[in-house]
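QUALITY CONTROL LOG
STEP: pairwise intake check
CHECKER ROLE: data steward
CRITERIA: each record must contain a sequence immediately followed by its C-alpha cells, with no blank fields

ENTRY 1 OF 2
RESULT FIELD BELOW
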Amino acid sequence: MSNIFRKNPAAAAPAAEADKKPFVAPRVTVAGASNGTVLDGKVPDGDPVTAWNRRRDAYKLVGALNKRKFTVVVIGTGLAGSGVAAALGEQGYNVHSVTFHDAPRRAHSIAAQGGINASRARKVDGDSIYRFVKDTVKGGDFRAREAEAFRLAEESVRVIDHMNAIGAPFAREYGGTLATRSFGGVQVSRTYYTRGQTGQQLQLAGAQALLRQVNRGTITLHTRSEMLDLIMEDGRARGVVIRDLVTGEVKAIPAHAVVLASGGYGSVFFHSTLALNSNASAAWRAHRHGAYMAHTSMIQFHPTALPVNSKWQSKTILMSESLRNDGRIWVPKKKGDDRDPAAIPENERDYYLERKYPAFGNLCPRDIASRAATEQLEAGHGVGPLKNSVYLDFKDAINRLGKDTIKERYGNLFTMYEHATGEDPYEAPMRIAPGAHFTMGGLWTDFDQMSSIPGLFVGGEAGWAYHGANRLGANSLLSACVDGWFTLPFSVPNYLADHLNEALPADDSPSVQEALGRVNARTQALLDVKGTKGPTQFHRELGEILYRGCGVGRSKAGLIKAREEVRALRDEFWKNVSVPGVGSQVNQTLEKAGRVADFLELAELMCVDALDREESAGAHFRVEHQDEGEAKRDDEHWTFVSAWQTESPAGSAQGIAPLTFTRHVEPLTFSAVPMATRSYK
C-alpha cells in the first residue's frame, strides 16, 4: 500500500456491534415486487484497505500459449471498453470489440469535460488515499462497497501515469509537473485535467490503444453494430447477437466471456446530457436474462447543465463542474425578478450554496447542489425566459484573476456556451439548471466485476459498485479507466482459467439459434405494430413522466402515479408505435424503437426501486425522509444495495404482460470510514 495512505485512527476498529446483528432485509411492500436472496459480493474478508491486493494476488492465470485459445467480446469502446479490449488484446486474447458508432473514438466518454481524480497527493494540501476513500464513501452517502473505494483510490495513481504515457496531454504547472484543480465534494486538489476536454483526450488515447491491437490482429472491430441479445448456454454468457446498422444483418459472436461496457442509462429521461444514441439496451437485454440491476433509481442530476429552452429541444448540454471552481452560483432574492443580472446589486443576490454550505460553498456535491437549485426554482427565484435556471457568474473571478487566466482554464467551455446560447459568459452570467446526467445504478456485479450471470462482466457506468447514492465529480472517468485497464484484465482471465479447451457454441447450436430467434422475433414484433406515433414521441413523454415523478425529488404518491403512467405508456407503445420500413437494411426508427421499448421497462423498475427504498440517500431524495431539507438515511434498515430481477410470464407477448420484480440484497459494511450523517456545512 502506498505510503500516502493514512488511516484514521478512530476508524481502525470495525463496527463490532453492527457485525453482531444478523442481517434482515425489510419486507418489500411495493405491488408486484417481492423479497429475494442475500447476495455475496465476494469481497475478501478482513481489512478493506488490502482487499483488492489480496484478491488480485489470488487470481488464477492463463498461460501465455493458451490466451489465444479464448475469445472475449467487449460491448462498447468508451474508456472502460477500449481499455479492457486493448489490455486483453495486448496479452494475446482473441477479442471482438463492438460499437454502434462509426469509429471507437466516438464513444460517449469523449463528452466528459472537467477532469479525472487521483490520490497521488502531489500537492501539500492534506490529500491521501484514505482521504480519497473517505470523500468517495461519504459522497456516495454510504451506499456502496467500501473495498471498491479503496481499489479506486489505489489504482487511480496508476491510471494517471498510464494515460499520460499513452498520450493524454494533461495540463502542467510551469515547472512541468501535472496540474490539478478541485472538484465538488472535496477540499483538496486532486483532479487532473486537459482544459475542459479531459474525456475527449482520454478517449482518444484509449481508442488509439484499441486500434493498435486491431492493427496487430488481436482485436476484431465491429463498427456500426448494436448488441441485441446474449447467447446463453447452461446458465452462462457465451457470446452476443449483434445487428449491423448499415446492412441490417443479424449475426452471432460466440465467446468464452462477455464484457458489457455500454455506458449508463441517463438518457431514459429524454432530456439529458448524454448523446442522443446513448441507451440501456445492451444492459437491459442482459438484465432480462437474469443479470441483476442494482441501485436502479440512483440517478445523478448535474447541477450545471444548460436549461431546456424549448419544448422541442432534443437534449440538454453539460457544462463542466470545474466551472464551479471560479464561478459563483446565485439567484435574485426577489421572486420573479426580471432585471438584467448586471442591474441586480450584490445585496439583492442570494449566493445560496455559499450561504447554506459555507465549508464547501459552490463545490458541494452534485446531489446537494441540484436539490438546492431545484428548491430555488420551485420557490419562484428562477431566471431566464422560462424561469427554469440559476446564474453561474464569473465576474468576481475575472476581476481577481483576469480574463486571460479564465480563458486559459475554461476557454473551450465558454465558447461552447456562447455557441449554444448566443450569450457571452465573459460579460454576463451563464444560466444553468439540473439535468439528468449519470447513473450510479447499473448491473450488479461482485468484487470481480462479474454479474449474476457467470461469464458476463461489467465495466464503467454500466456497473454500480463505486459511487453508491451519489458520484463525486471526476470519479466517472477514473472508475471507467480503473475497470478497463486495471481490474477486468485481471478478473476476466481468472474466470477463463477454468474453461480452457472449451469449444465455442457452433452457429447451428441451440443456444445460438435461440438467441437469433429472439432477436428476429422482437424485430418483427416492432415492425408489425404499424401504429401512428413515432418512438421519439414515446421517449419524450416517458422523460416528462420521470422528471415529474422520479426526478430530483420523489414522493410515494408521485412514484406510484409515475409507475402507473409508465405502464400505460408502455401498453400504448406496443399498440401504436410506428416503425416503417424493414429490418434488413438501414432503419434508424427501428433502432430507436427497440431502445425505447427497453426504456419503458427500465423506467418501471426505477420507480419500483425508488418506491421500495424508504429513506433518502444521496441523489435518491424521498421528500418523506428529510431533515431540514437534507437527505435522511435509515442505516438501521437500508444499509444494503438492492439488486433487482425482472420477469414476465413465460410465453407472454412482447411488452404486453405485466412485469414482476424480485429484490435481492447485498449488505454493506463500513470499518475504515465510520458511518456518519453527511454534512457539507
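ENTRY 2 OF 2
RESULT FIELD BELOW
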Amino acid sequence: MEYLLSIIIFFPLLAGLAVFALEDRVAKFFGASCATIELVLVLALWVGFDSGSSSVQFENLLMLIPAFGISYHIGVDGISLALILLNAIVILLSVLFLHGKSPASHFVACLLLLESILMGVFSAQNVVLFYVFWELSLLPILYMIGVWGSGEKLRAALQFFLYTFFASLIMLLGILYYGFLFFLHSKQFSFELADWLAMPLPASYQLWLFLAFFIAIAVKIPIIPFHAWLPHAYGNAPTLGSVVLSALLLKMGTYALVRFCLPLFPDASIELSLWILVLGLVMIIYGAMVAYAQTDMKQVVAYSSISHMGVVVLGIFSFTLIGISGAVFMMFAHGIVGAALFMLVGIFAARTGSREIGSIQGVARAAPVFCAIFGVVVMANVGLPLTIGFVGEFLSLLGIFATYPLIALLGGLTIILSAAYMLSLYKRLFFGKEADEQKLAKFTDVNRREKLVLGIFSACIIALGIYPKPLLTLIDSGVKPVLETMAARAQVSSSKILLTTLASKQDRALDQIKSFDLMGEYSAEMLDSTQAIESSQLESSPAQQSTPLLLGE
C-alpha cells in the first residue's frame, strides 16, 4: 500500500503509451481493461484511507532538485480522494462509450494520459509539481479538439490553449515569488505546500499572490468574465472531449481554490470574498439565461455548467464546513451529471446529424429507454431531491446562508432557472409532435453499450442522491483541516473573528431554517457580529497588516 498512489498516477501513463502500438480493434478493449484496473486501485485506496484522520495519507516523497526545494511529493486527503474517484469513473465510462473514432488507439491514449495527469493534479503536495501536472493537462484535450473536433476545431483548440496557458503563467509568477518569500524567511528554497502553510504570510502579500493564483483558476473554471474560450471549445470538441472538459478539467480550478487559495491566503480570501460571491451569482444567473436562449443542446449543457459551477464558488467562499463540503460534493455530482448529459447529446447528434433542439420532436415514442435515462439526468441537473445534484446544491447554499443570507437566496435561483431551460429542452425534444414520421422512425433507441454506460451514470445519480454519507464523510475529513489552517494562518483580527464564529452562526442558521424564522433574532445576531468585525478592523493598525517579511524571521 506504500506506493499505491504512485501506481495509480503512473499506471494509466504507461498504458496510454502502450496503446499507441495497438490496432484499433484491440486498443479499446485494452483501454477499458486498464481503466477498470485503475478504478479498482482507486477503490482500494479509498478502503485503506482513514477518514478519521485529518493528515495527508499515502504520501511518497522523492527529492528532484533539493537546492530549490522541488520534489516528487504526493499524498491525498478526503478532497483529493473524492476527485480521484471521479476521474477514474469518468475515464472508464468514456472509454466504454468510445465508438467510431479513428484512429481509436490515439483517442484511448489521450483519455488514459489525461487520467494519469489529473491523478497527479489532485495528489501533488509540491506546488511546482502541481503546476507541471496542471499545464500538462492541456495537451490531451488540445489534441482531442484539434484532431476529432468539428467546425472551426483548430481555432477552438488554439483559443482554449492560449487562454489557459497564459493565465497559468501568472500563477507561475505567483508560485515563484512565494518560493522567494520562503527563502527570505527560512534561508532556503522550498515549494512544499506543508512548508508554505507553516510560514506566516502578512496580509499585504496575500492579496497580490491570491490574485496571481485566482486569475489562472478563474479561466479554468471558468468564472465570468474569463469564459470566452468556453463556447468555442465545447461547441467544436468531440463528445468525449466535452465530457472530460466539463466533468474533469473544470474541477481542477475549483479544487485549486480549496487546496491553495483558502489555506495559503485566508485574509485575502475573506477580503475579496464578497466580490467573488457576486461573480458566483453572475455565473448562476447569466449562465442560466444564456443556456435558456440556446438552440444547440451542447451549448445548453455548456452554459449550464457555468451556472452550476457558480454554486460551487458560493459554497467555497462560505468558509463553513457545510458549504465547502457541499461545494466539493457538487464538483463530484456535476462531473457525473455533466458527463452523462454530454453523452446523451452525443447520442442524439449521432442519430439525427444535428444538435438543434427543434430538429426532431416526439422522441419518447421511438426511444423510450433513451427518454427515461435522459429524464433521470435532467432531474439531477435541475437538483431534484433524492438525486446527486440536490445534495451538493443544498449544502453549498446552506453554507453560504450562515454568512450572507441574501446571497444564498439569490443563489437558490439556480434551481428555478435550471428547471426552466432543462425542462423546456426535455419537453420539446421528447414530447413535441413530429411532422415527419419517417425521420422519427429512423431514431433508434440506445444500444447495449450505451445502456451500460448511461445505466452506471444513472445508478450513481440515484444511489448518491439517496445515501450520500460515504462520500460526504470522506470529503468532510479533508475540509476540516482547510478551515483549521485558515484560522491559524489568518493575520488580520477580523478574519480570525469571522472564521471562529461562522461555525456557531451556521448552527443557529440551521435552527432558524427549521423554525422558518429567517429574520428576527438571527438577523440581529448577524448585525452584532458584523459590528464586532468592523470594530476589530478599526483596532488593527495598518502597520500590523502590512508587516514585511524579515530575513531570518
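INTAKE CHECK: passed for both entries
DESCRIPTIVE NOTE, ENTRY 2: Residues 516-553 have pLDDT under 50 and may be disordered.
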